[in-house]
Design goal:
Order of helices and strands: HHEEEEEEEEH
Shape: rod-shaped
Distance between the termini: 92 Å
């Protein structure tokens, strides 16, 4: 099987047809799997690898291309993306709590000003 990969790579300049590239089978974890060839990256892709059109590279276990992070979310950076999402969630809850406290304090000051029970005097 390895010989086929090396032979196909050496014959790549001879324009090997796509049928041979797409029909290569390999044994991975005691299962027979189909190894695909990516024409854009010129590599044999591992199973569950998808080519991202935005990044222009093959990503293993591609989830999505994130515009906020600016990269693809896949096998290598999925846990960091989840940590990023949790930190954004916690910071937004923190911001909501602080804004509600600030609004509540300002509304109490406005009520005390209109009722004439202000804690400060205007000279």
């Amino acid at each position: 099987m390895r010989g086929f990969l090396f032979g196909a790579y050496k014959r790549k300049t001879d324009q090997i047809n796509d049928d041979i590239r797409n029909k290569f089978l390999a044994v991975i974890n005691a299962r027979l799997t189909k190894i695909k060839f990516c024409n854009t990256c010129d590599i044999y892709r591992p199973p569950r690898t998808i080519h991202c059109g935005t990044c222009g590279c093959c990503i293993e276990r591609l989830d999505h291309h994130c515009p906020w992070v600016g990269t693809c979310i896949g096998k290598r950076n999925y846990k960091y993306f989840i940590l990023f999402m949790w930190s954004v969630f916690i910071m937004s809850i923190y911001s909501i709590v602080l804004c509600s406290i600030h609004i509540n304090d300002n509304s109490l000051n406005i009520i005390s000003i209109y009722s004439g029970k202000s804690s400060f005097s205007v000279s």
